[in-house]
Queue: 2 jobs
Job 1
Amino acid sequence: MSIKPKLNRFDLTMIVIGLVIGLGIFATPGDVALSAGNSWIFFGAWIFGGMVSLCGALTFAEIGARYPVTGGFYKIFSYCYHPAVAFMVNWVLVISNAASVAAVAIKGADYIKPFLLPANMQGDLGTKIITITSVAILYVINFLGIKMSARVQNVLMIFKIGLIVLICFAVFKSDAPPAAMASISRPSNLVTAFGLSLVAVFFTYGGYQQTINFGGDIINAKFNIPRGIYTGMLVVIVLYLSINYAYFHVLGLGGLQQRPALAAKMVGVLFGATGYKITSILIFLSVLAYVNVNVLANPRVYYAMAEDGVLPAVFKKVNPKTQVQEFGMSFFVGSILVVLFFVASFSKMLNYVMLFDTVGLSMAALSIFLLRKKTRELDSTGIFMIKWFPVVPLVFIISYWFVTANILYNFFTQNLLAGCICLSAYLLGLGIYYLCMWYPRAKEKADRKELVREEKE
């Protein structure tokens, strides 16, 4: 059963915003401030990151317009490079996505548990109970159908955008305290500081690329995918720059470096205990939106892999009434729940997730050069095309390579084992692909030999 288009441009725009705005903007500005150690580098990283992400959004908008298929993030590798490369990159990203969703869900549960659980259950057990329950509820909602999931996503996104606007308007409160005067930790190397700042910035801006997985779900995909992507990203960039100005205005750079729960604490400073509680609830709803959209998006990659025969056919099975990949979605949610028992720290996960993301995203963006040659016949059909080509994709690709180099340098100078684990994950994926390709052929060859032997007897 194939997937039928059911999502309109507004749905896709909300999905883009939901994929990008997770918990990151409520947590990572502190990490950026710590890496930057300088207000110019801090704001420069957010502005540069927004410009690079917009270049990436425009690049993926054209990729989505030229190749609108379900599971597009996998398919583009297979079409432009080789199925082995597609599997190697995407199997790592699927694991990485499950891990990042689990980590963000845990962080979100930490905000809400003081209002839901008694004091004796405020530890890790209480966090995991809330997290697992939340994921289970979203799983059931997604089982009801893709349109139901999109409606829930739209409602959650309204809460999320409302939270960011609330934080931004806090700077206009007449009795707002002056920026915090806490001591500032400053870097010794400005280039390295800028590069490491971009790790958290790009993580916070990332996610929009997954929208090309919905190519088969979007009505009039060749036109609505690009418009949905760059409209959503423009909204995200404006919101991010606004909220970071609000953080800096109220807390100062030193305060940013020392406050992990930035949004709730800042609104608490401005509006008291009630403001802290309201913000904590809104942040939890924001996390639910991020989890929900990932549960919706990631199984599309499984569908594409199953179409190419590198995963069992059950992964592309779609319920004809609800348009839900019931097995694929169950597998992804199961992966999240497994990771929940092992994820220890959101911050520690950041470098692992970003290494996988920067490699995958830069390679995916690089495919636009091959895709333009392979689909020249579409140039005259009025589809979206990047105006400043090839400058726009090259800005994105080179910037992500710069961040990749900084992460690898950091790994191999401070944690050699972590760097080796990350690189070996790709080699393991390549081995799994060739094993999956070899086994059916070997079995078929053995069956033929057995048949010949029986005929001779």
Job 2
Amino acid sequence: MEEQFSLFTVEALCFAYGSNTALKDVSFTVSAGESIAILGANGSGKSTLLKIMDGLMYPASGSVSFLGERITEERLQGSFLKSFRERVSFVFPEPDVQLFCPTVLEELMFGPLQLGLKEAEAVKRAEELLKMLDIEAITKRPPYTLSSGEKKKVAIASVLAINPDVLLLDEPTNGLDPRAQVWLFELLERLKELKKTIILATHDLSLAGDLCERVMVLDEAHSLVADGPTEQVLKDKDLLLAANIIHEHAHRHGHIIHRHSHGPYSTHDEHE
């Protein structure tokens, strides 16, 4: 068995937007090579959690550490900042937030150049990614002219250009048509084979079930209420209903009451 070590340690994490709680006393660890889905209703704190793990925001209390180093505004500078940004990357749910360069090629070169690669090496890495992801045809296009699916591909490619160890993906299937969703799933499977650590916040239970070995659930009180093997968590209908991840309705046929929970892992119960 391969030795695992903790990449992230999250301890008693709390965060609020003014008087509105976003995360409450959240604790967990992440080992190298894990694939984890974070599930929760809108507003449960999934995106906030990923942003704090990426050092884009900082907790009100509690802590997040990466390889034993606390991620704080004071600490994220100098050599640790460079090392952290080389190893951890974040993909926003809306690509327009992430894309800003004049062309797709320059978008893919931006990260490597910022981390000190020479221009020739950055061009080579970008061109290899364009070929690998089959998006060479849009190399010279401005990102704003692309379709939503193409923008998502470029956003992910710009992150992969850094060759990070950890990918934090916020609602990665957001805005993708079925074909693009298949493309994304196959790409993430390839990254898993390369031993990348993948943490994604999603409403897509099928993606979580097919890709991730571990699932965490945030409830609408912004607390971590489940953390375990994917099959075990996704089979807990009561948990998913309580966290507002699936919903249920009942209707009567004569003396039979049918109860349906909705979602890829839904169930159908009958009670007389």
